Amino acid sequence: MLTALADAPRHGYAILQEVRAITGGRTRLLTGTLYTALDRLLQQELIRIDHEEIVDGRLRRSFALTEQGREVLGQETERLRASLAEAERRLALGRTVPDGSTA
């Protein structure tokens, strides 16, 4: 969800769509899950309410990353990058045949 907010503020439904797009459709958040997570991220001060508006008689809130949220997303990106590098290293080792050459 932090990634979905990294480039622009978004309202709830737009976050759902963005998460689906980012994950190639592999992740489909339910509305209840989304708003529970948004409340948690607000409490942790990783996101903030960017603005509110009334649309079709209903309140629509748009959310944006805070500086702390950007830092956390950056740290997670580095952690994932390190995990990816280790996976690639191990896969390369798995290509070695018993005589020490590579396949």
Automatic annotation (TrEMBL):
Origin: domain of life: Bacteria
PANTHER family per record: PADR-FAMILY TRANSCRIPTIONAL REGULATOR
SUPFAM superfamilies: Winged helix' DNA-binding domain (SSF46785)
Protein name: Transcription regulator PadR N-terminal domain-containing protein
Pfam families: PadR
Span of domain Transcription regulator PadR N-terminal: 1-74
Organism, as annotated: Kitasatospora nipponensis
